[in-house]
Amino acid sequence: MVLKPFCPRLRPELRLHPQQRWLRDPLTRLELALDPGSLAVVQALDGTRGPAELAQQAGLSRGAVETVLRRLLLLHLLEGAGQETVETLRALQAGNHELPFSVLREGRFACQGSGACCRSYGRCELDDDDLATISSLDLGSALPELAGTPWFEALPTSGGVRKFLASRNGVCVFLLESGLCGLHAAFGEAVKPKVCRLYPYTVLHTVIGVKVYDQGECARFATSSRSGPPVSEELERIQELVGPTRTLYHPVVRAGSQLHFDFGIFLRLQKELVGRIARAPLTAVACLLQAARLQRSLFDALAGCPLQVGQPEKLVQTVLAADCPAVAPTKAALAAGAQACAGLCDQLREVLHSSLHDPETPLRRGMRAQIEGSLEVLAALGQRATSKAADALLSGPELPSGPKLPSGPELDALFRISFRQTLFGDFAMVQERPRAGLLRLALGFLLSLQAMAGRSTDPLQHFDAGHSLALRVLRRHELDGVFVAFEEHVWDVFEALPELVA
Ligand code: SF4
Fold it and tell me: In a 3-state reduction of DSSP, which class is residue 316?
């Protein structure tokens, strides 16, 4: 088969501003800064020149031109690249497309009434409907213990003054001693704020559909995520709660300082990741390793994406259809992974410790307790990782690494649900960085296990506490920078996982 010559041109809707040296994509709102060399290449893209002619025209080396072209190709800025994604973006902008819902088949939820979510959330924002509904209630008669207590607080934010549920002694003012919601108990579920009615689901508008998934933070996750109606039966109710207009989530994905690509590619990776976990119910560690190896092989392939018509689609399809063979890590790589894990634990502890003493952002009681608990678990995990790093390098007797971490098929099944929810939604990335997101996923898994370690002969009794501690604490935004700073160690940490849990 003869390949059509690769003579690229920009997509017609792109706007180039030569003086200010940027290229703007009105479909995704991407604004790409161009250095002088990139600008010269972009200006020469007329659909008649291949890389060699472009190099001549722009006065650059062929290699430099190919780097620029690959960057534009992976961002779907060249005509024909990411056709399906681009067509959907165009249709959405023109108002000709309605996004379908996209959910995980096994997703379900039933509240177990622990009340933990009402003690440890960050802030619960109230919209005008929430304010009007709750204001119309006779709170004084139904909840006399609330007398004189304001039930919302108005706080200045970067987007102006916004209103949030108020708290008393660090918990929501409406939470009853019994752990039930006072609003729900007195007036029925329909009067609760929308955020509370949506919990634990969250919604993400993407070009392939409106993703609805569990945030996985419920304090009774082991039971709640396997009970109740399937999420597919809740979509009408969820649609009513989130309303019709939401911003499309379509960021540039950053898989390294030089590798940036369109979110459409990441959506295909996500689909394959969650599909593989469902198709082959492996152990939790094997699932994580598989996810990391697939991501790594895709990122490596994209970094050298051929400059051809039909790319990067062909490449993405080939990589996602292939197996990722395991490569036994060297002792030095194992030690590096364990050391990175220990360093990560140290840094996370430092930042969390500061959060406990930050007068600017007072913590709710439940969250404070979880952060305090996590400091201890992170210290134990760090110690474990340090001793595993030493073991990998020394051939002498093993160093003490603390109590054995729990394992077993029931735990694996729960972690598979948790991993699928995380990899399906926006928690798969930290600040649009999938490597940092993967690192957080691995650390959440280790932290959950460490929190369960040595606590009873039946680790399932403690799964919920460990899992919610890991997910709630590690998703705090002040920790994002730590995961980003350590993302270059992600592959080593993953390859060391079997050793770290042994
Ligand atoms: S309003 Fe009810 S459901 Fe919402 S946080 Fe308060 S107690 Fe919990």
Answer: helix
262 Cα: distance to centroid of ligand 1 (angstroms): 38
Q: Which of 486, 485, 492 is nearest to 332 (CA)?
A: 492
Q: Which domains does the chain have, with CATH numbers?
A: 15-81 (1.10.10), 102-242 (no CATH), 258-321 (no CATH), 331-501 (no CATH)
**Pocket of ligand 1 contains residue 192 by CB under 6 Å:** yes
Residue type at position 400: P
Question: Which of 306, 277, 298 has the alpha carbon at shortest distance from 289?
Answer: 277
Residue type for 201, please?
Y
Q: Which of 196, 217, 218, 365 gets mutated to test ligand 1 (max ligand atoms within 8 A of its CB)?
A: 196
C-beta 118 within 6 A of ligand 1: yes
Q: Compute the distance from residue 422 Cα to the ligand 1 centre, in Å.
A: 24
Task: Estimate the share of the chain in helix, then strand, then coil, as percent rounded to the nearest 5.
Answer: 55, 10, 35
Ligand 1 atom showing the smallest separation from residue 172 Cα: 6
C-beta separation of 162 from 122 below 8 A: no
Determine the distance separating the centroid of ligand 1 and the alpha carbon of 170, expressed in angstroms: 13
Helices (H), 188-312: 194-198, 221-224, 235-242, 263-279, 284-303
φ, ψ (nearest 5 deg) of residue 103:
-135, 160
245: CA distance to ligand 1 center in Å?
Answer: 25
215: nearest Cα among 369, 417, 351: 417
How far is 217 from 476, CA to CA, in rounded Å?
12
Note down pLDDT in tens along the chain; length 502 residues. Answer: 566 789 999 999 999 998 889 999 999 999 999 999 999 999 999 999 999 999 999 999 999 999 999 999 999 999 999 999 999 999 999 988 889 999 998 899 999 888 888 886 667 889 999 999 999 999 989 998 887 789 998 888 777 889 999 888 778 899 988 888 999 999 999 999 999 999 999 999 999 999 999 988 898 999 999 999 999 999 999 989 988 767 899 999 999 989 999 999 999 999 999 999 999 889 999 999 999 999 999 999 999 999 999 999 999 999 999 998 777 888 888 999 999 999 999 999 999 999 998 877 767 777 888 899 999 999 999 999 999 988 877 655 556 667 788 888 999 999 999 999 999 999 999 999 999 999 999 999 999 999 988 776 676 778 898 898 899 899 999 999 999 999 999 999 999 999 999 8
